[in-house]
Amino acid sequence: MSAQPAAALEVSPNRGGRNGALLVSGVWLGLLVLAVVLVPWLWFIDDPYALGGEANQGPSRSHWFGTDQLGRDMFARAIWGGRVSLSIAGVSVGIALVIGCLVGVVAGYFRGAIDTLVGSVIYITLALPALMFALFIVTLLGQTFWNVTIAVTILAIPAIARIARAQTLRFAAREFVTVSHMMGARWPRLLFREILPNVIPAMVSIGFLAVGLVIIAEGSLSFIGASVSAPNITWGSIMTAGKGRLEESPHISLITAGMMCATLLALNFIGDELLKRLDVREARI
User: Regarding predicted confidence, which is higher, 13 or 143?
Assistant: First the structure.
């Protein structure tokens, strides 16, 4: 009788801690998304391009994140940079989820020649160096918001399609799909009413992880000068601009890097929790 309460006491603190971390992650992402969406109308955020302040000033009451080498407010630049970085990540992952999920589900359900063709394209694309492939696309098309988005979308689609295909193969053999097929259901119903709703939870959880990876990819492109061109601001471009001033003005890069790291941790934690709570890894639904 006494063993059960003891076991509960051992499990509950860890569960409570994870729930608390999940709450903190959700609040951080919610506030960040709210800030980047409403930033054009937030009166307390300065113009990110305005000059005239004291250059390389550290964090203060008037400039929460300090100023850069041109006297521009770093808090404003961090929020506006997050607006562009999160927009690229959100749009590219959204498009990649729709296309990759449909391609993976179709390939996993029909198999045969379609699966062979899709699988070959997926493995060839995944074998290419991701950063070099994105750099090639951006160099070919130009350094604009939509071209960078296209580049990272092309990189995300094969990985998402591969996961969707694997989930489809698991669910296509389940009893409820077999019964529906025996009762005369045709392939559109089997795909969109039986299989796809069970694959979507995996795609949602993978989507959070993919957003973090795209943010890192955009930052990598910015580091080598291949992301969106000025005057656009991204988190990657802010950190790249401050990398040569780490000794005298570390706040220019480090505070923005801290925001980026906090966002990545929140996205990864939420995605990981969804993977566990939806039993995606074991495909038990």
Answer: 143
Which residue from 135, 263, 277, 137 is spatially nearest to 209, judged by alpha carbons?
263
Q: What is the phi/psi pair of residue 67, to 5°?
A: -125, 160
Q: How many Å apart are CA 270 and CA 207, to the nearest integer?
A: 10
* Domain parsing of the chain, residue ranges: 12-277
Instruction: Answer whether the bond into residue 231 is a cis peptide, omega within 30°.
Output: yes
Tell me the C-alpha distance between 38 and 82, whole Å.
12
For domain 12-277, the CATH superfamily is MetI-like (1.10.3720.10)
**Whether 268 contacts 181, CB under 8 Å:** no
Strands (E) across the chain are located at none
Confirm if 160 and 206 have CB atoms less than 8 A apart: yes
CB 72 within 8 A of CB 48: yes
pTM: 0.83
> Could you report the per-residue pLDDT of 229-255, keeping only the tens digit for each?
878 888 988 888 877 777 777 888 888
DSSP codes of every residue in 52-71: -S-TT--S-SSSTT-B-TT-
Q: Coil, helix or strand for 67?
A: strand
| Residue pLDDT, tens place only, 171-214 | 777 777 777 767 766 777 777 777 888 888 888 888 998 999 99
